[in-house]
């Protein structure tokens, strides 16, 4: 016979309302207190790992990121190209300058190191900022190959 576990509300003088998890022994009719986490009543819910995407460029970008809802997140330890192309839109240049001033990007040799996860409005904005150039669409973010 399977254990029958139930919850009993208890009024405590100083703590207020408390809940007690009890097991009722069907043979003796005795109640035994149980740890709810050991009973399997509560299971840890883990969020699924996001699909990782990556971008690389000839100027030195080597970044990884993933979608978070409608936004795109570039992961910490990614590297942005240190230079921008002459065709780089001004909005990406300004965004890169802002990230540098905020300390989210720091110079590292011929690259800029991402110091913490950075959330962008779109994968195109993330890619334009990372490669320091003009982009046609989010299609250049490629799925990271599992090893």
Structure description:
The chain is an alpha+beta fold and 147 residues long. The chain folds into two domains: 1-44, no CATH class; 53-143, no CATH class. 14% of the residues lie in helices and 35% in strands. The protein contains two helices and eleven strands. The chain has a five-stranded antiparallel sheet with strand order 10-6-5-4-11, with helices on one face. A three-stranded antiparallel sheet has the order 1-2-3, with no helix packed on it. Helix 1 (90-101) crosses helix 2. The radius of gyration is 26 Å and the shape is elongated.
**Molecular shape:** elongated
Structural class: alpha+beta
Biggest β-sheet: strands ordered side by side in the sheet: 10-6-5-4-11
Main sheet summary: 5 strands, antiparallel
Domain module count: 2
Element pattern in H and E? EEEEEEEHEEEHE
Percentage of residues in strands: 25-35%
Subunit organisation of the chains? single chain
Count of alpha/pi helices: 2
Task: Summarize model confidence as the mean pLDDT.
Answer: 88
* Count of beta strands: 11
Low-confidence stretches: none
Instruction: Tell me the radius of gyration.
Output: 26 Å
Estimate percent helicity.
10-25%
Gap from first CA to last CA: 46 Å
């Amino acid at each position: 016979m399977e254990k029958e576990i139930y919850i009993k509300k208890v009024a405590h003088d100083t703590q207020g309302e408390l809940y007690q998890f009890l097991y009722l022994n069907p043979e003796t009719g005795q109640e035994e207190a149980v740890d709810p986490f050991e009973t399997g009543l509560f299971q840890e819910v883990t969020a699924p790992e996001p699909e990782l995407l990556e971008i690389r460029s000839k100027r030195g970008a080597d970044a990884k990121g993933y979608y978070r809802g409608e936004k795109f997140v570039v992961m910490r330890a990614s590297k942005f190209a240190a230079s921008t192309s002459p065709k780089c839109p001004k909005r990406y240049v300004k965004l890169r300058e802002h990230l540098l001033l905020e300390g989210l990007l720091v110079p590292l040799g011929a690259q800029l190191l991402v110091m913490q996860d950075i959330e962008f409005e779109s994968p195109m904005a993330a890619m334009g900022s990372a490669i320091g150039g003009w982009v046609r669409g989010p299609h250049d973010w490629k799925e990271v190959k599992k090893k």
